[in-house]
Amino acid sequence: MIETTVPLPDMQNSADPRGIDITKVGIRRLKYPVVLGMRGNGPQHTIATVAMYVSLDRSFKGTHMSRFVEVLNEHRRELDIHDIGTLLRHMKQRLEAQSAYLELEFPYFLEKRAPVTGQPGMLHYDCRVKAEVDLDDRIRICYAVTVPVTTLCPCSKKISAYGAHNQRSFVTLNWQCTESIWLEEMIELVESLGSAQIYSVLKRPDEKYVTEYAYDHPKFVEDMVRDITAAVRADDRITWFRVESENEESIHTHNAYALIEEDKLAGCPAAFLP
Amino acid sequence: MIETTVPLPDMQNSADPRGIDITKVGIRRLKYPVVLGMRGNGPQHTIATVAMYVSLDRSFKGTHMSRFVEVLNEHRRELDIHDIGTLLRHMKQRLEAQSAYLELEFPYFLEKRAPVTGQPGMLHYDCRVKAEVDLDDRIRICYAVTVPVTTLCPCSKKISAYGAHNQRSFVTLNWQCTESIWLEEMIELVESLGSAQIYSVLKRPDEKYVTEYAYDHPKFVEDMVRDITAAVRADDRITWFRVESENEESIHTHNAYALIEEDKLAGCPAAFLP
Amino acid sequence: MIETTVPLPDMQNSADPRGIDITKVGIRRLKYPVVLGMRGNGPQHTIATVAMYVSLDRSFKGTHMSRFVEVLNEHRRELDIHDIGTLLRHMKQRLEAQSAYLELEFPYFLEKRAPVTGQPGMLHYDCRVKAEVDLDDRIRICYAVTVPVTTLCPCSKKISAYGAHNQRSFVTLNWQCTESIWLEEMIELVESLGSAQIYSVLKRPDEKYVTEYAYDHPKFVEDMVRDITAAVRADDRITWFRVESENEESIHTHNAYALIEEDKLAGCPAAFLP
Amino acid sequence: MIETTVPLPDMQNSADPRGIDITKVGIRRLKYPVVLGMRGNGPQHTIATVAMYVSLDRSFKGTHMSRFVEVLNEHRRELDIHDIGTLLRHMKQRLEAQSAYLELEFPYFLEKRAPVTGQPGMLHYDCRVKAEVDLDDRIRICYAVTVPVTTLCPCSKKISAYGAHNQRSFVTLNWQCTESIWLEEMIELVESLGSAQIYSVLKRPDEKYVTEYAYDHPKFVEDMVRDITAAVRADDRITWFRVESENEESIHTHNAYALIEEDKLAGCPAAFLP
Question: Which residue of D lies nearest to B147 if distances are taken between CA atoms?
Answer without folding.
Answer: D253
